[in-house]
Amino acid sequence: MAIAETVNNKKQPKQGMLENVMKQFDAAASLVNLNPNIKKILAVTNNELIIHFPVRMDNGDVEIFKGYRVQHNNALGPYKGGLRYHPTIDIDAVKALAMWMTWKTSLAGLPYGGAKGGIQLDPSKYSNAELERITRRFAYALGENIGPEHDIPAPDVNTNAQTMAWIADTYMSTKAPSERSKNQHVVTGKPIGSGGLEGRDRATGFGVFLTIKYWAAHKNVSLKDKTFIVQGFGNVGYWAAHFLEKEGAKMVGVQDAFGSITNAEGISVENLFIHTKNNQGRIEGFPNTSTIDKEAFFGINCDIFIPAALGNQITKYNANDIKAFLIAEGANGPTTVEAEEMLLNKGVDIIPDILCNSGGVIGSYFEWLQNRNGELWELDEILIKLDKKLKEVFRKVLETSESKVLDLRSAAYVIAIERIEKAYIQRGIFP
Ligand SMILES: NC(=O)C1=CN([C@@H]2O[C@H](COP(=O)(O)OP(=O)(O)OC[C@H]3O[C@@H](n4cnc5c(N)ncnc54)[C@H](O)[C@@H]3O)[C@@H](O)[C@H]2O)C=CC1
Ligand SMILES: O=C(O)CCC(=O)C(=O)O
Q1: How far apart are CA 14 and CA 22, in angstroms?
Q2: Domains present along the chain, CATH in parentheses
Q3: Which of 235, 238, 280, 295 has most ligand 1 atoms within 8 Å of CB, for mutation?
Q4: Catalytic-residue membership of 116
Q5: Do residues 229 and 243 lie in contact, with contact meaning Cβ atoms separated by under 8 Å?
Q6: Is residue 236 within 6 Å of ligand 1 at its C-beta?
Q7: How far apart are CA 405 and CA 221, in angstroms?
Q8: Residue nearest to ligand 1 atom 24, measured at CA
Q9: Whose CA is nearest to atom 38 of ligand 1?
Q10: Which pLDDT tens digit goes with each residue over 225-272?
Q11: How is 106-134 classified by DSSP, letter by letter?
Q12: Chain segment 175-190, per-residue pLDDT in tens
């Protein structure tokens, strides 16, 4: 609560993600009348690891980094969740993100629990060689706190297939030669050729698109010529926009960490993607668009808003500016509880993060299975399997939402929490 954000040049108190996820959990626990002992277990994390580790920089100096891995719950299987490299990462943020992973894997019916981790750093300040040493040193320090049947990291903000390859290689190098290849699935989201899954790169964004498509089919709405805005034009934002554009929708606004652009006539997703590749990942300077300020971005006229950046972006300070009738949460925790209430009251539908962006972890599950079984899956079959799995999860959320008269997030939480509760009750509550 101590941090502040600036809205319309005024400092406003900023709510932390942990506070947000706890409010969501408390509300859902009441809805399902959750067993009080299980509620106590789920309200806290199982393990929290903070590691300070030294790394030699290119100039010869040693810098100390702070890395995190939080394992929230493993009632349903090994801990699973991404690694984020970002200056705002702290223990509370990682706890919140780990909790969301527990609900997400449970909702998707996967044999996983929830975890998250990362390093508090701004990766743009380091060379590629430094990032490799930082990542390898972090992986080494994590040691047996991760493992292919225990806790399986994956990419998140500012990490990618290369990061995962360094972690897999470092982890495997600590094993006896005959054991190394059996440990490839210590991480998912690896490069193709190093055990990675065809299509894991687009799995999250494709899943975001699919959930929008299922929602549109349910509401009898055509996506053709619908307009959309995207906050965050990285892995998730780009791929979601790519598939929406292919479906005939038009991107009219984009925001990244460095600025916001708009054009009511449309912004080409593929041209912007090429532009960012040649511009250090940034959207700034893209031709035929106007630059607008951070807060004006939320008020752009559009039908669909895809937050695909950081948490707590849609707040009570900007919720009323939003024109979209649908928010599809590609990011984790982009909407505060207060903002959600305001949006629902004005009739905006929200496809919640734990459903909307679950294509990523479903893709990771496929990669894990592929590695475990020594198989190689093809892109077409993977995208079909992902569609089938996500469609079924979406159907269940919709059914619960209609039968219990709940918004989509509450319905998703009900399914997720009831599945975990059932596992504890079958086993005798305490793990
Ligand atoms: N990569 C994955 O498979 C999954 C990612 N997610 C979530 O999706 C979100 C985005 O992740 P990725 O696309 O992987 O990250 P990324 O690192 O590929 O891209 C992040 C994008 O967000 C922008 N951004 C960062 N701070 C911002 C700010 N303050 N305002 C506006 N834009 C900002 C960056 O400039 C960049 O364009 C995160 O919340 C992540 O937890 C969720 C499920 C899976
Ligand atoms: O693919 C995974 O294991 C998890 C990705 C992730 O961090 C997320 O879904 O938020």
Answers
A1: 15
A2: 46-184 (3.40.50.10860), 203-356 (3.40.50.720)
A3: 235
A4: yes
A5: no
A6: yes
A7: 21
A8: 257
A9: 331
A10: 999 999 999 999 999 999 999 999 999 999 999 999 999 999 999 999
A11: HHTT-S--EEEEEE-S-GGGS-HHHHHHH
A12: 999 999 899 999 999 9
